[in-house]
């Protein structure tokens, strides 16, 4: 089995595990620990993973102009998209914002085909199409009545979609200019640069849990996310980004299975259909990429 498939599977698993637990500090711990401060803690866990990664390559970091530009672009696109998602969720309905933002692999696939020359077989193309439908269904939360303020949230949501889509494509494009470990280091720097924005968005007038249930528990929950981000780089670099990105975006499947096992939370019909489609997409893509290649169609 190609290593990129293993990296993709592990990255999807850890992203899904993080998503299953990420609401615990804010919704189930009293007083809560805001998600904006969770971003700060996530940046620290990224730094811990960066130390591990750089130690593997004896702290050899590419510092030429091209490497720095690629690294800064990847880091700011990823972290900036997360900040904009916070802004979108502040005024917009989550059941609309999250499914839209989750479609970022559409941007990646188009860019990979047009500018990276990646070719997809008919079976892979079918699997990716099924994956996009599954991504939407898996990302749809229960519609809840609530105030929707203005239209800026939609702009923020769409910007998040494009920024994350461009980030995945740029990770692949930067191959040959800097190592995976150096790229992750610059991603970590990008996350750290935007910490002031996360602090600015935090409501410090509310009670905040500064005990172990706050930052320390959040660190344990965010660590899988940081690990997944590192593994994601290896998967993008070694595999076809047009295929890896949609598979990783199916991480809600892992989240739902985890919630089913731990929280005994049964999925509704929409989610169940999304789960079946996700498994179908994974099967089609895995079959197409592990069997002898057919004539590419795209």
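Q: What amino acid sequence fits the structure above?
A:
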């Amino acid at each position: 089995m190609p290593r990129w498939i293993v990296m993709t599977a592990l990255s999807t698993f850890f992203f899904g595990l993080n998503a299953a637990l990420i609401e615990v500090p804010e919704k189930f711990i009293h007083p809560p620990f805001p998600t904006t401060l969770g971003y700060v803690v996530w940046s620290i866990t990224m730094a811990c993973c960066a130390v591990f990664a750089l130690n593997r390559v004896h702290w050899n970091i590419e510092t030429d102009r091209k490497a720095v530009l690629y690294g800064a672009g990847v880091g700011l696109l990823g972290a900036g998209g997360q900040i904009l998602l916070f802004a979108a969720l502040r005024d917009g309905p989550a059941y609309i914002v999250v499914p839209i933002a989750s479609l970022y692999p559409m941007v990646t696939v188009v860019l990979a085909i047009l500018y990276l020359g990646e070719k997809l077989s008919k079976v892979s193309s079918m699997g990716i199409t099924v994956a996009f439908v599954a991504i939407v269904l898996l990302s749809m939360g229960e519609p809840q009545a609530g105030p929707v303020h203005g239209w800026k949230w939609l702009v923020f949501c769409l910007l998040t979609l494009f920024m994350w889509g461009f980030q995945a494509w740029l990770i692949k494009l930067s191959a040959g200019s800097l190592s995976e470990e150096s790229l992750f280091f610059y991603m970590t720097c990008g996350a750290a640069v935007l910490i002031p924005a996360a602090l600015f968005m935090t409501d410090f007038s509310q009670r905040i849990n500064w005990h172990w249930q706050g930052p320390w528990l959040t660190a344990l929950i965010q660590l899988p996310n940081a690990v997944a981000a590192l593994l994601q780089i290896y998967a993008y670099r070694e595999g076809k980004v047009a295929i890896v990105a949609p598979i990783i975006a199916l991480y809600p499947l892992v989240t739902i299975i985890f919630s089913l096992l731990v929280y005994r939370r049964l999925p509704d019909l929409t989610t169940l259909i999304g789960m079946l489609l996700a498994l179908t997409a994974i099967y089609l893509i895995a079959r197409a990429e592990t069997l002898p290649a057919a004539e590419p169609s795209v």
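Q: And what stands out in the fold?
A: Residues 3-290 form one domain.
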